[in-house]
Amino acid sequence: MSRGGVARVSISIPPDLLKELDSMLKKVGYDRSRAIQIAIRNFLTEYKWVQESGDFSGALILLYDHKARGVEESLTDIQHAHGDIIVSTMHIHLDEDNCLEIVAVKGNSKSIKELAERMMNEKGVKQLKLTVIAK
Ligand code: NI
Question: How far is the CA of 67 from the centre of ligand 1 (A)?
């Protein structure tokens, strides 16, 4: 519903993430609404290329909890299924729980988008960043 130039929405956030957000907001001086607006704008900018067709190159960077059940197998299965656009994968064991994976991709925007979405939806994946440039 839109009223007075803004729309009010309700979102679900894990408690730990909300706590971290609030603690960061104290430091930067934004309120929650402003922070979410900035995050949404960044997200939209980052994914605008998705609407364009054609070939792109880029890198998917993901952080995941390798102790989350089945996450390693799932991520490997996904990468095998998208082997036609994956150029290289680098795996870094960050600490006891966290793994960082950098997946270099080259292919059409639709396939890159599908790969990113599948990985992002895996339980245990905490963050995923996708940077894409025109070929
Ligand atoms: Ni690892």
Answer: 10
Distance 63 CA to ligand 1 centre (A): 10
Question: How many A from CA of 73 to the centre of ligand 1?
Answer: 12
The residue type of 106 is: K
Q: Flag whether 19 is in a domain.
A: yes
Please give the C-alpha separations between residue 53 and each of 48, 87, 107, 112, in angstroms, as whole numbers: 11, 20, 10, 11
In a domain, 46, yes or no: yes
Using the mean position of ligand 1's atoms as its centre, give its distance from the Cα of residue 123 in Å. Answer: 16
Containing domain of residue 127, as a range?
55-134
Which two tokens mark 15? 């408690």
- pLDDT tens per residue across span 63-102: 999 999 999 999 999 999 999 999 999 999 999 999 999 9
